[in-house]
Design goal:
alpha+beta; 15 helices; 11-stranded mixed sheet; 57% helix; 2 domains; 401 residues
Amino acid sequence: MNILKLSYKNIITKPLQTFLTVLILSLSIGLLLGVKQLNKVFESQLQQSLNGVDMVVGAKGSPLQLVLSAVLHIDNPTGNISFTEAKKIAKNKYVKNAIPISIGDNYKGYKLVGTTSEFIDLHKTSIENGTLFKKPFEVILGNSVAKNLNLKIGDTFSSAHGMIENALENHDENPLKVVGILKPTQNVIDRLIVTGLESIWHLHEHESHQNKTNVHNHEDNEITALLIKFSNKMGLLQLPRMINKDTQFQAALPKYELDKLFQFTAIATKAITWIAFAILLVSGISMFVSLYRMVKEQAKELALIRTYGASRNILIKLVFSQGFIIGLFSYITGVLLAFVGLQAIFTSIKNTYKQQIYLLEFSQDVLELFIFIFGIIVIATLMAIRPIFKMDISKILSNEN
């Protein structure tokens, strides 16, 4: 007896019921996989992008906006601050490392960041090809920038003013030259164009100074933010309060601000997760009802199978195989839905924020969910096969006759 073939025929005799069971189960699987993967990917991306930055100092405004713009580079900056005054904070005894950054330009949507060589070390990467910038208007490219824009060592381009792609305000008089390409990191620096602070100042000297000779002093120039790492835990207790109270600057703690952001997004995430579990529960009940009705409605066929010498275990295997076929098909469909949906979301993020995102431990999530779904199939089957144990073959056949 070919149990799988017989199970398949039993399933297709109830196409609408089977379709609804598969639809509900696959949607719940897709939602669960998608939400879990998005949480894992985004949290990993944010933690990688922090890279040990304990505090960000910038212009007063929204602390979250300051963190998003200066650390994650996905928002507009709150303004500029004096480089001279910022250096005084960098000399504080609680500061182990302070990296200045200046942003405000882009090339085809990719942010141009003026900084020092320490910014490269902060993101735990190094030059893959070429050299580090040494002179004004020399730039190094994040790995994604080089690949997506097909830029190579020696190429030149003109940046545009502002944080979004804008071909109307290009700095054509000061073309930038690619001198290096960074190794891939899968964090924020992959989508940045990095240059020296002097490059940014020269590009914007006509905006900041009527007298261009002042640029070469670098005394009156401005930066966007200062990325700080504390020398000890006392820095966390003392510096933010001191800066916010006694200076015209703002101090923001990236971890604290992002944790607050996660608390808001976690509400929606938990809601979607519980909805997915509720749908999964409904689909499990639907599978049980489908198998139970099959056992009751096909009682005569099952009884006849027993009269031909089939054991009770054969009937149990028949019911289980039907549940397994439905569950396996739903599972495969759900995984495909999650994969396609995630790729669509990642593509949208890449187009909007220029950040390449990859699936993280997706196969592990798939395996864990498969075990969970298999458990649901087993439970639904055990509940559905109860009539088989109470089956009175002679009574069923005599009633049918």
